[in-house]
Specification:
alpha/beta; Rossmann fold; 4 domains; six-stranded parallel beta sheet
């Protein structure tokens, strides 16, 4: 470390020497040295300013990422990195000027503590003699003087020159040179360490005051500090003030002077950076929504709620991992809205077997807690605790709609290697387009809804050399529910043609791009227009929804039939969806659900396509999300929104033709329409029977591995004979 400090101190010593030769005052030389370092580092300060502006401009996008991926820390990190790369933002550049202070301070410490070497250029042998004599005069040793040997020599020559005169080996010229150096500045000895009973105590006081003054200015004018919260701003101010005072208290006053000058000079540097890159020229502060601060009561309530959930989570985890608890099937749900995807399969299993379902949810208000079925046992495990919880999983089968097993926060169990993980998609979408690369690689079994899913999985396995998974043709249980419910709805009271706008909530969705142009085509043409934002969009971006309602306040008036424009925020019923004549969406899977259920067409607006897997085009299949757009309706680009009115009129006129064709498309693309629950339920029941039978025979865990992995690793499944004998029935089609 000493060698590194010396290496840095040598060039800085020459710079300080030139400053001293120019101003002939040690104190002024330190001030000039500080000015020169600020000038040399100014280009880096400008780069940091520009980088900081990028960070502030990215805040809405970063907030979107955090909001859209709440609870998924790894995904938030991945998307944040992608945004940084897209915006060319550097996470390092912002702290480079601060980091550069470290070698500067270390080098300056070497310069200040070794003035005979750096500022007077006295040869090494003479310095050694001078320091040895200083130690003798102070009745100590050179070793005890340590790093401060030269500094103590400088100070002692000034205070006791007679003690050095005429001594063997000490040059009179060197003594004159040392005495000629002015180590005082405004009445303070810069070679001494501050003492409380001397004027030198002013140095740490002024150092702390200068740091506080700099922080006050930064809190008002630094582009990042302005955005920080009160605690962050003033917490940092208190820390830097205390640090600056302590720094100047324990080191020689010369270093304290450098710190004071550095703090004060940072203020004009900040002003110049704001003049060159004025944040107001790059950041639209006017349109940035003011952040509402929670009241103290709300903060206390939030803290208590957090504690309550933590207690509940701990109790549920203890109950789940109770010794001896039999868990054949565990279902994991991200939230209350996912119950509808599991409902029919779970219902079938419960009705046709004695198997209990252990239902784990990350939503404390999940409807499952109100279900009241003793055969479906609910547990609350929040997103943070979920990682460790899933790694301790000890069930036979885990059924989930959450992809990215192993690649993001949810990992396969470390406790049991034989768990069969089954993926159930929550939309009639294309795996290779709408899921990330590797999203399904670590599942053993997939419940597939149609031929496209089988083709996509097999092509992905072929492309990446993956083991074949068990694919179970289950159909789409939610669609069966919807078909039944639509029959119960009956006709609308309002006879006007109803247009439903139901976008996704991905970045760049229809609510964020094109909504005004779309409404301009629909309002005033006799339609009843309903905007039904995605529930997640409504929950996470309420201020955007409020701004939309404010813009169209005059259209939201209520008449006898419920208004000519309605913004629907109650998602407890899908009645308005399935009583509409046309659904307008972007990339939401609601279009397939609507058209398949009602046999009415959808209008697709081509906002930026949601591509979760950038390698999707390596799979030689056109994603159904793309091909269906012109099969169950019409798709328009954003620059074709002026054609919306005419397109909708044409679709309404040819509604019967669409109904006939959509019926064919549905039968072609979805398995077991009207009977989806049975296939998935039969598979689960048969697998549990198989596992229980093998367990009763005393086989090891390897035999209980899921069929796909077992066959891939060892060829023929050990249980093939058992299946043939009828001991396990209903295995995948």
């Amino acid at each position: 470390m000493e060698a590194l400090i010396t290496l840095i101190g040598t060039p800085l010593g020459y710079l300080m020497y030139w400053c001293l030769m120019f101003v002939h005052s040690y104190g002024l030389a330190i001030v000039l040295f500080t000015v020169l370092t600020k000038v040399l580092l100014f280009p880096l300060s400008l780069l940091a300013q520009r980088n900081s502006i990028k960070m502030v401009r990215m805040q809405p996008a970063l907030a979107d990422i955090r909001t859209r991926n709440t609870g998924n820390g790894e995904l938030i990190m991945a998307e944040t990195k992608a945004l940084y790369k897209q915006e060319r933002y550097s996470t390092v550049l912002g702290v480079v000027p601060l980091l550069m202070q470290v070698p500067l301070v270390l080098g300056l410490i070497d310069v200040v503590y070794n003035p005979l070497q750096h500022l007077m250029h006295i040869d090494e042998a003479s310095i050694r003699i001078l320091v040895q004599h200083t130690a003798a005069l102070l009745d100590t040793t050179v070793r005890d003087l340590g790093y401060a040997g030269q500094l103590r020599t400088l100070d002692l020559v000034h205070s006791n020159p007679a003690g050095f005169s005429g001594q063997f080996g000490i040059s009179a010229a060197h003594l004159d040179q040392i005495q000629a150096m002015d180590i005082g500045f405004l009445g303070i000895n810069l070679a001494s360490v501050p003492r409380l009973n001397e004027p030198t105590v002013l140095v740490p006081v002024l150092s702390a005051a200068s740091a506080l003054g700099l922080c006050v200015v930064q809190n008002r004018h630094n582009v990042l500090q302005v955005e920080a919260g009160f605690v962050s701003r003033w917490g940092m101010a208190i820390f830097l003030t205390a640090f600056s005072g302590y720094f100047a208290l324990v080191l020689p006053c010369g270093l304290g002077l450098y710190w004071i000058a550095g703090n004060l000079l940072s203020i004009p540097v900040l002003v110049l950076c704001n003049l060159v890159y004025n944040p107001r020229h790059y950041i639209d502060y006017e349109s940035r929504a003011a952040r509402e601060k929670p009241t103290r009561e709300e903060q206390r309530a939030a803290v208590e709620r957090k504690r309550e959930l933590a207690r509940r989570e701990k109790a549920d985890a203890h109950r789940f991992f109770a010794k001896g608890l039999k868990k054949n099937i565990v279902v994991y749900s991200e939230g209350s809205g996912y119950w509808k995807y599991f409902a029919k399969i779970i219902g079938y299993v419960v009705e046709n077997s004695e198997i209990d379902i252990h239902y784990v949810t990350s939503d404390p208000d999940d409807r499952i807690f109100r279900l009241g079925n003793p055969r479906v046992i609910p547990y609350y495990i929040g997103p943070r605790a979920l990682v460790a919880f899933m790694m301790k999983m000890d069930a036979d089968i885990v059924l989930m709609t959450t992809p990215d097993l192993e690649t993001f926060q949810i990992k396969r169990s470390l406790v049991r290697k034989d768990i069969e993980y089954i993926y159930l998609d929550h939309g009639m979408t294309s795996y290779h387009l709408m899921l990330r690369k590797n999203a399904l690689d670590n599942f053993d079994t997939i419940f597939v809804y149609g031929p496209n899913h089988i083709q996509e999985v097999r092509e992905t396995e072929r492309l990446y050399g993956l083991p074949p998974k068990t694919l179970v043709k289950t159909g789409y249980g939610l669609l069966d529910d919807l078909l039944t419910r639509v029959e119960w709805l009956g006709p609308r009271v309002d006879l006007r043609e109803q247009i439903l706008i139901a976008p996704s909530w991905q970045a760049g969705n229809l609510m964020e791009r094109g909504i005004d142009e779309l409404l301009a085509q629909l309002l005033g043409r006799g339609y009843r227009v309903i905007i039904r934002p995605h529930p997640e969009y409504a929950k996470r971006f309420p201020e955007r929804l409020a701004a939309l309602k404010e813009r169209y306040a005059r259209h939201l008036r209520t008449d006898a039939f419920g208004g000519i424009l309605i913004v629907e925020e109650d998602f407890s019923s899908n009645k308005t969806v399935y009583q509409s004549d046309i659904v307008v969406t972007d990339w939401s899977s609601i279009a397939q659900e609507f058209s398949y259920t009602t046999k009415r067409p959808s209008l697709f607006i081509n906002t930026p396509m949601k591509v979760m897997n950038p390698e999707y085009d390596l799979i030689p299949l056109v994603p159904l999300d793309i091909s269906l757009r012109d099969e169950i309706g019409v798709s328009l680009d954003l620059d074709e929104l002026d054609q919306v009115s005419g397109v909708i009129t044409n679709m309404l006129v040819h509604s019967q033709k669409y109904a006939d064709y959509i019926t064919e498309v549905l039968e072609r693309n979805i398995y077991d329409v009207g009977n989806a629950a049975q296939s998935g339920g039969d598979y689960l029941i048969a697998r549990v029977k198989e596992i229980e039978y093998v367990r009763s025979l005393g086989f090891g865990l390897s035999v209980l591995e899921p069929p796909a992995r077992r066959s891939f690793k060892r060829g023929r499944s050990p249980l093939t004979t058992l299946r043939a004998a009828g001991r396990a029935e209903g295995i995948a089609k």
